[in-house]
Amino acid sequence: MGTVISVIIVIVVVALVALTVKIVPQQRVGVVERLGKFNRLLTPGLNILIPLIEQVRIYHDLRIQQAHVPPQTVITKDNVQVQIDTIIFYQVVGPEQATYGISDYVSGVRNITTATMRQIIGKMELDETLSGREKISVDIRVALDEATEKWGVRIERVEVIDIKPPLDIQEAMDKQMKAERSKRAIVLEAEAAKQDMILRAEGDKQSKILKAEGEREARIRQAEGYKQAQELEALGQAKAIEAVAEAERNRIEQLAAAGLNENVLAYKSFEALTEISKGPANKVFLPSNAMEALGAVGAIGEMFKGKKTE
């Protein structure tokens, strides 16, 4: 009997400890009620409760959670049924509101998402719906923010995973897409051929221009070389003439300095002519005025007169 009582006491003590000591993990909080009324939040770490008076109503995970909204069939503005699959990312920021503001905030988020999605898609045509995922996500998030704020839940992100049109429309879209791709390929091929021709023509044009410029430059340099050569040749001739004139002037000055006048020079010249005329086949013809000049030389004049007489 004593053993049974001891076991019961141990069980009671263990139960009281279990009801009194609460260890809360990181990123989790507990909502404590005292006699059925909200009292406080249990933060991460060791917490003590009053047994049988206080109890933890619920624990909330404060990390970002995700809720998958099952695929919903909605009708677009142009009466086409499409199926949309969505995921909602949310976070509990007010544990007290999340506990007492709504019985199940996850279901509330899903239901608001479905209703908002139908309203949004009902204002959009099919093409706009297929290309407007970002707009749909933003509009759903704005609607959820307004509704979940009082629930202590913040919507982090809304992602539209997939939008599926009916099978016949999907096949038509596939055909249209293939036709568009074929058209784009043809256009790109034609554009590539056009660019190739343009580049080749441009290259040929540049080649001809460069060749013409090269020939022009060569002719200019050749003309400049010929011009410089002529200038140098004329300069050389002028220098040569100046040198000859200078030499002649020096010779005359030296002759004058040696006392040789015109008569002496004439005498020397006629001496040379006399030696030339001594040849049997040589004849010397002198103009009459030259003979008169020889007369002024005296004996020289007589010598040529005698030669003339012979």
UniProtKB/TrEMBL annotation:
UniProt keywords, alphabetically: Membrane, Transmembrane, Transmembrane helix
InterPro entries attached to this UniProt entry: Band7/mec-2_domain, Band_7, Band_7/SPFH_dom_sf, Stomatin_HflK_fam
Residue span, Band domain: 19-177
Family statement drawn from the similarity comment of this UniProt entry: Belongs to the band 7/mec-2 family.
Pfam families with a match to the protein in the record: Band_7 (PF01145)
Highest taxon in the source lineage: Bacteria
TM regions (residue ranges): 6-24
GO CC annotations on file: plasma membrane; side of membrane
Organism: Paenibacillus aurantius
CDD domains associated with the record: SPFH_paraslipin
Keyword Cell membrane: no
Protein name from the UniProt record: SPFH domain-containing protein
